[in-house]
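Title: Prediction job returns without error message
Component: structure pipeline
Severity: low
Priority: P3
Assignee: unassigned

Description:
Job completed but the reporter wants confirmation the result is attached to the right record. Sequence as submitted:
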Amino acid sequence: MKRKQSDAIVFGYNEYASQIVRNIRSEYRSVRYYVMSDENLESALEQGYDAALFDLSDDWEEIITSNNIEDLMVFCALENTANNIFLTISLRATFEAVQIIALANDQESGNKLKMAGANKIIPMVEATANVITGLLESPVSSTIVHHLLYEESDLKLAQITMAENSKFIGKYLHDIRWHEVFGIIILAVVDHAVSTSFIFTGKGQNHQLDPGDMLIVIGYEKDIEAFKRSVGGEET
C-alpha cells in the first residue's frame, strides 16, 4: 500500500536508520533524516538525502513547519537506548496523533519504548535490517511488512533460539511445513556456528538445524508462543 500523501521522518544516522530510509522512500511523499551532528548532516546531504539537525530538546518547531503533522510517520532509530526513549517521550508529549515506530535492542527497552508512547517496536538486532530488506524485495512480503509497521495487530517478528533438546535438531528447514503446522513463517536462520552466516529461507538454502541456531520468524503472538513451546526454544 502506497502512502504518498504521508510524510516520514527518521531520527538517527546508522545502518538501521539507513535501511529504513532506503526502503521507505518510495512509500512516502517525503522522507527526512534528523541527525545529531554536523558530520552526519554533511554525510546525509552528500548522499542526496533530505536531512536536518536536532538536539533532543523540546523545540519541535522545525518539524511542525516542515511536515504534515496530521499524517506523519516517525521512526526513532537512535543507537543510544536512553536517548531513544527520551526522544519517544518528548515526541509523544508534543504530537499526540503521530505514528511512532521505535527500534529496541532488547525486550526491556522495547517495553520502555511502548510505555514512552511508541505505537510499534522493531527489534534492533543485526539481522533485522536485512530481514526487512529481503522482505521488501517481494510485493507480497511488503504487504506483510506494512501490516507489521502500520496496523494494530498481534503480528510480530521474533527470534527463537533452538534448544539442545528440541525435537527438530538435525532436521532440515524445507522438510517441515512450518506454516501449516504452527501458523508461522520462518524468514531466516542465523547459524550458531558462524554468527555472521545469515540464511534467507526463501533463497533455496536448506539449512540443517543445530542447537543454538536462531530462527527469525513472523507470525501472530499466540502462534509464536505455541511454536516456542513445541520446538523447545526460547525467544531472544
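Comment from assignee: result matches the submitted record. Residues 70 and 163 are 47 Å apart (CA to CA).
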